[in-house]
Amino acid sequence: MIAMFRAVLYTQWKWSRLIVVLGTVAAFAIPLLSLQGAARADRGALQAQELLRAVQSWGTLYPLLATALGLLTAIAAWAPDHRGRHIHALTLPIERWRYVLLRFGAGFVLLAAPIAAVLIGSSLAALTATLPPGLQSYPIALAVRFAFAVFVAYAVFFAVSAGTARTAGIILGIIAAVILVQVVASIANIDLNLFGVAQAVVLLGPGPLAVFTGRWMLVDV
Amino acid sequence: MSRVLALVLAVSLPASPLHSQDSLIARLRRQADSLLGSWREAQKLADVADSLEQVRATAGSDTIAVGGLRIIVNPSALPWRQAAELAWPVIDSLYGSAAEDLTGHPYIFRAVDPDSGVRRAVLHVGVEVPWDLDVRATTALLLTTVTPPSFDPALANWLGSALRPTLRPQDEHAVVFVLLVTAPSEAVRRCFLGDIARCKDVLQIGDTTGLLGRWYATPAEREALVTQAFTDYFSRGATAPTLQNCRQHRDDACTALLQSLPPGSLPRPLAHAARLLLVREVLRTGGRDAYRRLVARPSAPIGERLASAAGMDIDSLVARWRNVVVAARPKPLTLPWSASFAAIGWTAFFGICALRSSRWRL
Prior knowledge:
The complex is a heterodimer of chains A (221) and B (362). By secondary structure, chain A is mainly alpha-helical. Chain A is built from eight helices and two strands; from the N terminus they run αααααβαααβ. Chain B has 362 residues and is mainly alpha-helical.
């Protein structure tokens, strides 16, 4: 089983190494760039607000990077199988679910690199910066949040990619039905806010994308 | 004889404009008196109109009395009594013994159906509220509209807002912490680090001379203040060249511009929340009569009034306020445990969805 995993991991690395390397470089660079200039101790009292504003602006890139990494890694994991119409996978002497599990696990291993890069980059940025009194850095919390976001994004897109055309059709059909009902309700002047409900279900509380919301701050009070 | 005549003429000539000036002053004084009389008459008429309006607005209403609260309301299903029973202890804990004076400031509410298209009489006294509020919302309404007893203009000007009970005290503390950390003022930063004299400066208690230098101590702060807050104000007319000099990092120009501002218009480095929290700390420290002592001498300096109300010297009071603020650091932006478990759960859920997929069905 370990040999099989190694083989799957190696092939998946070959298919997605460009994505992983670029993602790792970006994940390392964003925290450092977000604190650029904070190492100067002579910036005075004007520094705190400017610094928080810069950190907040750069913070929007973390969920975007997590989404991009999850999407591209998931697509790369299935693209050769889709191209070969899954004939190779079906000829292997292994159950389908085991094969999918190996691919799923290999993706997680590859995505560990950008997560580690965020942790190292943000720790380095926090260590080299001179923060104004009252502000603190949260490199571990940021890296943990980034890890969860990457994993959720990868799992969502992996499930969609692993599915059949029929599954994709069902998902798209449900989305289209929601939009259609909302449009009809608006035309009929019915007080129905499906988009708001969907947004609350997906983005708030225990929703699947809740980890993406909120402020991604490396430095805060 | 001609010399005497000349002397009389010499004396009378300068006296004639003085005489006419005297008559002008007398005429202006008469006009001012007339205006004052008219204003007093108008005031009386307005009082009569207000009392008539109050009678009209409260006709057929019930009066609910809980503690010192008097709530005059039209018949409705709103839970006024329960709300008043919840609000009164909070109000009483803020104003202390002065809360009893609230009997002289009754609330007047009219519950209305916000969705109704039926026209209703316009009232100029009291507040209209939707009749479907729950106990929590009604309590919040009472707390946020209470009239602070004997709240004088000097205290109101210094405070920058009305002194009312807060619904979320911890949030207020956290807001002041963030203000202390992020305010673009070296004085505020030094206050955060424990310099009590700077705290008194930025809270505007004590010496009020040379506020510009005390509040915005560095040239960079003064330049930022001019270029960010007053660009439009100074960019026209005679101050435009000075503004250009200020933009070229000339501190004398920036300082001159800020000193030319009308009195009282220099932005305070700390928002009103900081002073509000100081007053709350004063009232908490000073006991039930603290509010009475605070409003007892409206003409006294604010620092003296606060110290008298709290029953301690102003430096100790400010140090206490700072300790309270510093202890109220907001919760860090860490991911809550529930969100972490939810993320793990959703990852597993979508993974299982993928495992159950089949390629036999294309």
